[in-house]
Amino acid sequence: MANTTSGGASAPKPSSSVKLVLLGEAAVGKSSLVLRFVNNDFQENKEPTIGAAFLTQKISLPNRIIKFEIWDTAGQERFASLAPMYYRNAQAALVVYDLTKPTSLIKAKHWVAELQRQASPGIVIALVGNKLDLCADAEGSGDAETAPSEGGGDAETGAEGAAADVEAETQTDTNARKVPKREAKAYAEEESLLFFETSAKTGSNVADVFTAIANSIPESSLKSGRGGGAAGATQAALSGAANRAEEARVNLGERGKDVKDNCAC
Amino acid sequence: MESLSDTTWDVVIAGTGIRQSLLALALSRSHKRILHVDQNKYYGGTEAAFSLEEASKWFDESQHISRCALRIEAIALWKNPHSEGLGSSRSYTLTLSPQLVYCRSAILAALVSSRLHTQIEFQAVGTWWIDRDRPVEVSESNKQNNDATDSHSGKGYAVAQPSGMLQKIPSTREDVFADDTLAPRDKRALMKFLRTVIMDPIPDAESNQDNPVPSALTTLSAMPPLLAQPLLALSMSYDSPGTVRTKSVVSRIRRHIQSVGMFGPGFGAVMPKYGGGAEIAQVACRASAVGGAVYVLGRGLAKLDEPRVQSAEAEASAEASAEASVEEVVRLELSDGEEIKARFVVGSAEDFPTGYIEGAAWKLNIDLVKIVHSISIVSSPLEHLFPPTAESGPVPAGAVVVYDGPDHKTTSGDDSVSKAGPVYMVIHSSESGECPRGQCVIYSSTVSSSEASEDENVQRLDDAIANLLAASPLSDSKSEVLWSLKYRLRGRPIDSDAGPVMSSKSARVMLFPVASVDPVFDDSILDGVKDIWKRILGDEVEESEFLKFVERTEDDEEGL
């Protein structure tokens, strides 16, 4: 959690935006993961997401700030027509399944296949098994939390930290886990996905997922712009007051207010 | 849950083009039950953006679908057989909607007030160039054929002598000062023009309204035609100099000049990253989905049955008056056969069943003009076209090159003005997210002149690009067209009256006004959207609330 800061803007590090989309079956906890990451909060019995919601959160890496623009989609979308709109141009995707529900992993695999077929080439995909708190082996997450390295950015680290507990999985009677970690992890490795087991409820591993994603975004897709330093200036900003170093975009905000005032409508 | 027919929809929006998407956005906080469908399996309709594979699929399909022909028709798809330079299909986002957005455009204000601007990345469109004054006459006889580029199934790219010059079109006083190719007298004339054009109201604009531009501009500022010509290019108007009307062109030039510096030094226009208008449309649809609208791709309107309007028929059918007439719903059949009900149905002409449009006797084909377009992927980044907008300004991702030749130096010795309009080439660098690094995409367009054959009109686009590539300082075999798609767009002439929203007798079915062919985002689009929005919501809203939203909070998501 220490990695996540909302006051990152004051730091003089370069900042990049990363569009991230959440996909997965209904009720696996997509919105809860985001809520935990963005507000460090959890709601029992959260209402299903309608359509999709847009949230942002900054994360501070040793050498740069990543601003996640998170598109949380509705898992129970009826006509499979929304998702393409969300994963278009996304640089990262979080495909979520429920550790206690094997069918949700099957759905997750469908999403991974669709992303690999349709999304931007080079998209970073993380497979996330959520509801670790319902698993008797949840203490595994305790190890995982301390595991991810600072800048090295190998997301697997976190997962491996918990790997030692794999054996414990099948032993406990009270264990609601239905998807063995081994199975999901093997699949993730096969498809070159980042892999984590999380609990949005306890917060376990949640920040690590986002940090790992941030570290895995290729430098080249962060630095938009030809000439290194000058690159930051590409995106002309529609909110004039914005820190130019922060983003290359044209910032409509500040100045935009004037526009609105002038506008006859 | 899977059935759309269980709900009586407040609004069914057909098509996901920019108009429909902006309407969906405008209605996104209205708590109306909205169904947004598209006959295509992709978003954007005639403003879509495609990967290479999707583009070629679109090309194939548009050969067969007559409905599309109302607005857009594919002409040719070409892939350079001699080059391996193309990247993977999905590394391209090629847009049918490359419109520039001027900083003063009402759409930017609307995107800000609706809180959408943070979700769209805008990039600067930097320099306007004019490609002209070639000493070498490019006529049929001395077109040079170059093996590297001439492979276009008989319609080879004519490569002119690389002797032409790209000149930056001065649009600010600083530009004029800095331009050392200008004689002092010309500088004075330009300065005077720049001063005059931003004055409001423009002196004599009214009285000169119907004069062709060169003389009007000359009157206005004693400008020699040679200087006036590049300024005409700032208007982004397709007319040839002989046919341009003063009022429109002067106000368009003024828009350009007044926009410069508004959001940053040295540029006056922006473009949304990842496909221009296509991106705006999708972002608007997302906002609408967040508000609870249901999205269904791949299903269009197959049939419409409007409520009967106070005719003898209505009273004749007793059961109709019992329920349906109270509700006044439109009965729709979707292309998969599902029948649904809606209080309002909105779309563009191409989203309605052909028979319906014809049956309604709506006049759609008033004064439509045709513009030929090409989307060309070029194997080099053409970096020289994208100088920084200013010392501390952003690196532009877009540039505009205006090509006037060769028809301007016409055969007859007299001073007859060329009939061909300019070719506009809007070049997007790889910063736009539309192509891989090291390449660029050229969106070119020109009016489809009735006095030339279609082939000749299309050839002008190829000539323009060939000239541009030949004039590149890095000109070598590396600068070549790798892939191109050509299509024809029909619409209202630029700055013509958009006309009213058309609605059926029952006022339940509404059509957006015919879109214009403007290469610049046409603000009148918002007027049409607003009109329909108002008709749907009636007294529930104040006009001033159009597209004005507060930031969504967590709580908003629930209970919608």
UniProtKB/TrEMBL annotation, chain A:
<dbReference type="GO" id="GO:0003924">
    <property type="term" value="F:GTPase activity"/>
</dbReference>
<protein>
    <recommendedName>
        <fullName>Vacuolar protein sorting-associated protein 21</fullName>
    </recommendedName>
</protein>
<dbReference type="Pfam" id="PF00071">
    <property type="entry name" value="Ras"/>
</dbReference>
<dbReference type="InterPro" id="IPR001806">
    <property type="entry name" value="Small_GTPase"/>
</dbReference>
<feature type="region of interest" description="Disordered">
    <location>
        <begin position="139"/>
        <end position="181"/>
    </location>
</feature>
<dbReference type="InterPro" id="IPR005225">
    <property type="entry name" value="Small_GTP-bd"/>
</dbReference>
<keyword id="KW-0547">Nucleotide-binding</keyword>
<dbReference type="GO" id="GO:0005525">
    <property type="term" value="F:GTP binding"/>
</dbReference>
<feature type="compositionally biased region" description="Low complexity">
    <location>
        <begin position="156"/>
        <end position="165"/>
    </location>
</feature>
<dbReference type="InterPro" id="IPR027417">
    <property type="entry name" value="P-loop_NTPase"/>
</dbReference>
Automatic annotation (TrEMBL), chain B:
<dbReference type="GO" id="GO:0005968">
    <property type="term" value="C:Rab-protein geranylgeranyltransferase complex"/>
</dbReference>
<dbReference type="GO" id="GO:0005092">
    <property type="term" value="F:GDP-dissociation inhibitor activity"/>
</dbReference>
<comment type="similarity">
    <text>Belongs to the Rab GDI family.</text>
</comment>
<dbReference type="InterPro" id="IPR036188">
    <property type="entry name" value="FAD/NAD-bd_sf"/>
</dbReference>
<dbReference type="InterPro" id="IPR018203">
    <property type="entry name" value="GDP_dissociation_inhibitor"/>
</dbReference>
<dbReference type="GO" id="GO:0007264">
    <property type="term" value="P:small GTPase-mediated signal transduction"/>
</dbReference>
<protein>
    <recommendedName>
        <fullName>Rab proteins geranylgeranyltransferase</fullName>
    </recommendedName>
</protein>
<dbReference type="Pfam" id="PF00996">
    <property type="entry name" value="GDI"/>
</dbReference>
<dbReference type="GO" id="GO:0005634">
    <property type="term" value="C:nucleus"/>
</dbReference>
<dbReference type="InterPro" id="IPR017230">
    <property type="entry name" value="Mrs6"/>
</dbReference>
<dbReference type="GO" id="GO:0005829">
    <property type="term" value="C:cytosol"/>
</dbReference>
<dbReference type="GO" id="GO:0016192">
    <property type="term" value="P:vesicle-mediated transport"/>
</dbReference>
